[in-house]
Design goal:
Layout lengths: L2 H20 L3 H6 L11 H20 L6 H23 L3 H25 L1 H27 L9
Helix pairs in contact: 1-3, 1-4, 3-6, 4-5, 5-6
């Protein structure tokens, strides 16, 4: 294991995670209609911390391998989209735009998982929980967008 690579990728994921500290859900989010299957508040920081560590570990396994360029480009794309979602949804309250970002994020992570898998099966498997959590998060974002029609349009 290359610890320097791991720490570099961990720093990238920490930067994305920092948006969760800067743009907290707050009263606006609490007032939204949400489905019964919304995860409890405590699950979000636990899940994201775990996922960011897994992402960094997976990327550090893939980075030194020959042919890792596309996999790393997809890592860069997904961490960028991941970083954009929180200020869009929680900061600007643009739920529809957030839905668009998270759907693109899901596609980028799915593609990254495939590329990681091709290079290192363990790295690909480490991305699977991220894709699962994004499926829940995207479903929640879309549900909130659809079921809170009083919010401003076009991006609500």
């Amino acid at each position: 294991m290359n610890w320097l690579l791991f720490l570099l990728f961990l720093a990238a994921t920490a930067a994305a995670g920092a948006t969760g500290v800067m743009f907290k859900p707050g009263p606006w989010y609490e007032a939204l209609l949400k489905p019964d299957w919304t995860p409890p508040k405590w699950a979000f920081p636990v899940a994201w911390t775990t996922l960011y560590i897994l992402m960094a570990f997976a990327a550090s396994r893939v980075a030194p391998l020959p042919g890792a360029g596309l996999a790393l480009a997809l890592f860069a794309l997904q961490i960028t989209l991941n970083t954009l979602w929180t200020p869009t949804f929680f900061g600007a309250h643009l739920i529809g735009l957030g839905a668009g970002i998270i759907l693109l994020l899901w596609v980028a992570v799915a593609a990254m998982m495939v590329q990681f898998w091709r290079l290192d099966a363990w790295a690909g498997l480490m991305i699977l929980p991220y894709l699962g959590w994004l499926t829940v998060a995207a479903s929640l974002n879309l549900w909130i967008w659809r079921n809170n029609p009083a919010l401003p349009t076009p991006w609500r």
